[in-house]
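Treating backbone geometry as a discrete language has practical consequences that deserve illustration. In the encoding step, the backbone of a single protein was reduced to a row of integers, each denoting a local shape. The amino acid sequence and the backbone structure tokens for this protein are reproduced below.
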Amino acid sequence: MTLLTNTMDAPEDPAQDHYFMATRILGYQLLHQPNTRTQRGYPFVVLVTADVKQDRRDLLTSDGAIVLPVQNLEYNTTRIHGEMPQWKDVMTKLRAWELVEYDLIAFLDGDFILNRCLDGIFDDGATMPATLLTSNTLPTDEGELPSTYVLATVAEANPFHNYPPTAAAHDYKDPNYFNAGFFLFRPDLTLFHHFEKILQLEGRFDPQYPEQNLLNYAFRRSGQMPWIEMDGNWHIRFPTVGDMEQGVASMHDKWWSAHMDKGLQPYYDSIRWRMEGFYEVTSKKQWELAF
């Protein structure tokens, strides 16, 4: 699952809209690319806000994605606003917890590149339901919590790190802090209402990284729902060629501009053009069958 919002100043041509193209690339890799696609028939769900244009929605649907419109989450934007203006809608990601028709969801931000199939993340022991740590304190004004929960992820690595990163080697910014671009969770309405309560309370989390810091607060290690560490080979932030060569499964990076290691750019470009070629051939076959 991912979330797509309307990119600020997005060009009319979808092919020039970097974040939209990132979502298409992610869908292509999850559904169609031979070495990364699901072998279990897992769906690719794209949550879209109301301002996402219809031509983008139609393209994603034709690519094989399930396009699911969601309402923006309402909150005090004067008090809670992110470091970057393009993050204005990221709190809407929390609506994924309302989708209780799904048993377990892997959430990836759109700006991801895969290196191998992700099916096995659902088998990681960290995705088993955890019970509340009631020995830890809980503020009385944040609403109820479920008796069990799932929040599995990995700590956010430093830009310069070993692979696989470890706390012992000081490879993490903070071993208790995760990036909200990659996590597995179980939808739960009680938790969604818990998040809504937190949003109403001033000073509970730093809004610099809005939904990320809210989730890190809600699933803090000192709270009753500490997030559970997954195998570090599933994901890396600030990827390098070395990470890719050593087998990391997913890389949180922008396909159009490799951030830390420019040596990754040829690989990113190749995925984009493979995607373009795949859909061009698929469209041609569909047209031929229609006539």
